[in-house]
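User: Fold this; tokens only.

Assistant: Input:
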Amino acid sequence: MRVGLVGYGDSGRSFHVPLLRAAGAEVAVVATRDAVRSAAVRSDLPGARVVPDLDALLEAAPGAGVDVVVLASPSGVHAEQALACVAAGLAVVVDKPLAVDAAQAQRVVEAAEAAGTVLTTFQNRRHSDEHRTLRRLLERGEVGRPFRFERRWERWRPVPKQRWRENAPASEGGGLLLDLGSHVVDAAVDLFGPVSAVYAELTARTTPSEDDAVLALTHAGGVRSHLAVGSLVGAPGPRTRLLGTAGAYVVTDFEGEPAAFTGFTDAPRCTGWVVAGAERRPVPTAPGEPADFYRAVARAVAEGDPAAVPVPPRESLHVARVLDAARASAAELRVVTLPDAGPAR
């Protein structure tokens, strides 16, 4: 699979390129105007052509044999750029979120469906050790019938980084709701299906858009998800806690970030613990790795099968609707229902 990559900042260079390489893909063209990032591309990817923008990339794509465009650009331009890729007849991977709101996301999804184009969202956390292991644990019924899912992505970062993500308004993709919130809502939707009701509290303390978000989701199947993302959290809580009728699944820390609630000793080749009162046992890590995301993309592109993508576009559209509902809930201090929740899992 030959790739055209738009953007070579933290996302493009640190996340997409390593996973693309691990999946056996070749980055053929990179779009960036920044001189420092252009030099980094030439150092990291000596075989790749550097162009200034998406238009130039799309013009170069046929000659470079590009099969798929990966958008690692600021969230505010995702919808516009994805529509351009679809119009050019190219498969496209959009870094999360698919768009800054559901209306834009719907336009992208419907355009891709009408064109028969392969489209997916880069929700790479679906392929993390934690998520794979939790999905297998649910399939095996190891905590009984689940009824509450808690996921936190909390940091102690009292001085914001100076990036577009921290400085842009929500309409241009700024804030944690669209950033980390996209990840935690997608995880809940992937594990427990569509959401029928949303309650949220959103606050901007150190940045123009929210840097503190708490969401309570009711899934059509009855499970409730309590999700929190924040950058001003001096005592980050347990990363994951899933409660079920036969016990709980707990992950206390996350990728080496400081955690205030510990007490579980890591076990080799295990991810998280099943706990029932005083009983606890480590859970073997499910097979797989993050690069499986791009392996799935490569299969979908090779087969020309939009249904084979790792993250279905309609699920990303549903996540966008949940995030829109969270904004309405926080603004109006009420529970917002989603009439299009779809069938329960």
